[in-house]
Amino acid sequence: MAAAKKNKNKKQDETSSSGRISVTRNRKARHHYEILDKLECGLSLKGSEVKMLRSGQCSIDEAFARVQNGEVWLCDMDIPEYPQANLLNHEPKRDRKLLMKKREIEKFAESASQQGLTLVPLEIYFIRGNAKVLLAIGRGRKSHDKRDKIKKQVDKREMREAKLRGR
How far does Cα 84 stand from its chain's mean position? Predict the structure, then answer.
């Protein structure tokens, strides 16, 4: 009996360790925005969209989220049409609903309504077969802020390399 429980727990550990399968990342978002807060949301999709996400074909470079009528929508995310889905295909750039709890929506809606803040998707991935979006609240960076950030990164890299050469 104890062996059966151990095997059951072992199966649960394997599924949780395999966990996250990344589909796409928005690398430009961390450069263009100062990330203030992050939240994981579900994503409401059609079948052909899920097929294309599993094949890794998706773009969230220009995507953003918007709060409308107490719901959060992901806009301008591009999922190309699935070639095998003839009549039941989807629109590539349609708005997709994000699945969040009401408290989370209220919290994010307050933050996003402030001057200069926006909701930006950072990553799309699958957890246990469910499509998820890592949504962030970001403040747009000015060009001089971007230059300062790059300069600090270069300085850190040079210090690290000098430290390694000194050993």
Answer: 27
Query: Is 122 domain-assigned?
Result: yes
pLDDT in tens, 42-80: 998 888 888 888 888 888 888 888 888 888 898 988 888
Is residue 43 a part of any domain in this protein? yes
Report the domain count for the chain.
Answer: 1
Kindly report the three-state secondary structure assignment for every residue of the chain: CHHHHHHHHHHHHHHHHHCEEEEEECHHHHHHEEEEEEEEEEECCCHHHHHHHHCCCCECCCCEEEEECCEEEEECCECCCCCCCCCCCCCCCCCEEEECCHHHHHHHHHHHHCCCEEEEEEEEEEECCEEEEEEEEEEECCHHHHHHHHHHHHHHHHHHHHHHHHC
In a domain, 106, yes or no: yes
CATH number of the CATH domain containing 34? 2.40.280.10
* pLDDT beyond 80 at 114: no
Query: What contacts 83, CB < 8 A, 6 or more positions away?
Result: none
Q: Does residue 82 contact residue 89 with C-beta atoms inside 8 Å?
A: yes
Structural domain containing residue 112 = 18-141
